[in-house]
Design a protein that fits this description.
With 153 residues, the protein is α+β, with helices and mostly antiparallel strands. The protein is 41% helix and 16% strand.
Length: 153
């Protein structure tokens, strides 16, 4: 799989995309299955596929996936997603414009994730314990922890 390089975003585009993530997206750590360590997973969910296509074109990396529809009454929705190390340069660019708890999660990822994630996926016991601690601290940063979401207004 060829990784695409994240483009340099103009501040107005970075701010707009950060607002989409604050409102309709996520900054989280996911895993494909229970036997794999968690990876960075940034997503934006929306029913406007053209808007997500604009995000993909602006960022230059990631992909758009359809979400499963459980009822014919539901509007088809899509997810823009950028994962793993590919997400790091993207997160650096949108960090100044995030305003929810996702900003704190992004800061933690940028500060510690690379130090705790060996490329070969092999962890010493000490490093694995640090990774587990990082994951716990990451998920402790959540919407209910923040005093007021709208402090920035």
């Amino acid at each position: 799989m060829i990784k695409k390089k994240v483009k340099k975003l103009k501040p107005v585009k970075a701010a707009y995309i950060a607002a989409l993530i604050d409102g309709e997206g996520s900054v989280t750590l996911c895993r494909k299955n229970k036997h794999v360590y968690r990876r960075i997973d940034i997503s934006i969910n929306n029913s406007d596929k053209k808007m997500l296509e604009w995000v993909l074109k602006a960022v230059g990396a990631g992909k758009i996936l359809p979400k499963k529809i459980y009822s014919e009454k539901h509007t088809p929705t899509f997810t823009y997603r950028i994962v793993c190390r590919e997400a790091l340069p993207f997160l650096k660019q949108i960090l100044p414009y995030l305003h929810t708890y996702k900003k704190d999660r992004t800061k933690l990822i940028l500060k510690e994730f690379m130090k705790l994630t060996p490329r070969n996926g092999k962890y010493s016991e000490k490093m694995l314990n640090k990774k587990i601690d990082f994951t716990k601290r990451f998920f402790a940063i959540n919407p209910t922890q923040r005093k007021r979401v709208h402090d920035w207004i």
